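Hey, does this match?
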Amino acid sequence: MKRIIWTVVVITMSVSVCWGQNLRRAEDYYGRGLERQKKGDVDGAIADFTKAIEMFPKYSSAYDRRGAAKKAKGDVEGALEDFTAAIKINPDLALSYYNRGFVFLEKQDYDKAIKDFDKTLELQPNLAVVYENRGDAKRASGDLPGAISDYSKVVEIEPQNAGAYYSRGGLRQTTGDVDGAIADFSKTIEVNPEYAEAYADRGILRLSQGLDAEAQKDFDKYLELNNNMKGALDERIKYAKYQRDKKRKS
């Protein structure tokens, strides 16, 4: 009986040593894969991450990084498979939920994207980029109040995020909150004075309010930053004036 127990112990120790060696070798491939990925060697990175997975099949981070590399190469379905594999191995790997959600967002599968962003935020509650992308998904799916709420969370976490102010301003404009929209476009410009579209959009809203002189200053600044867009801007101004005059007559 003692001999049998000893045999089992030896076998167990041998397996443990083998797995330990495989993990160390897998980490070496993984590390080299990361370096290749940083240098733009996508194929080399994929090869190294694949080797790491062969050495240690439960290497969730290797699946995640290989998924990112596949996405960079245009293999969207392969990327989704790898992100999903990483999640199955480690259900608490927030990065893989985010990466998979971003792929779903690009595929315009907004419900799945939102679900993955929800899970990411459940695991990592203060990631502004996740709120921003979830806001984009909600906006695209028609949930404008939800999108506004997410963009508001972004600027709470990152007060210097000009893009989030601009996105929220656009939605406030769409929902009829003109003052809120102007405030957001003004904040966008405060954070990033080179944000051309914010000048144009604020100018259009000021025009609708009869603030022609202030609107013109915005249009001038917009054209200073985008001097090849005069024709398109003129059309927007013409339509805004038409809408304003129509409203006054009604």
Q: What stands out?
A: Residues 8 and 14 are 10 Å apart (CA to CA). The longest helix spans residues 2-38. Confidence is low (pLDDT under 50) at residues 1-18. Residues 25-85 form a domain with the Serine Threonine Protein Phosphatase 5, Tetratricopeptide repeat fold (CATH 1.25.40.10).
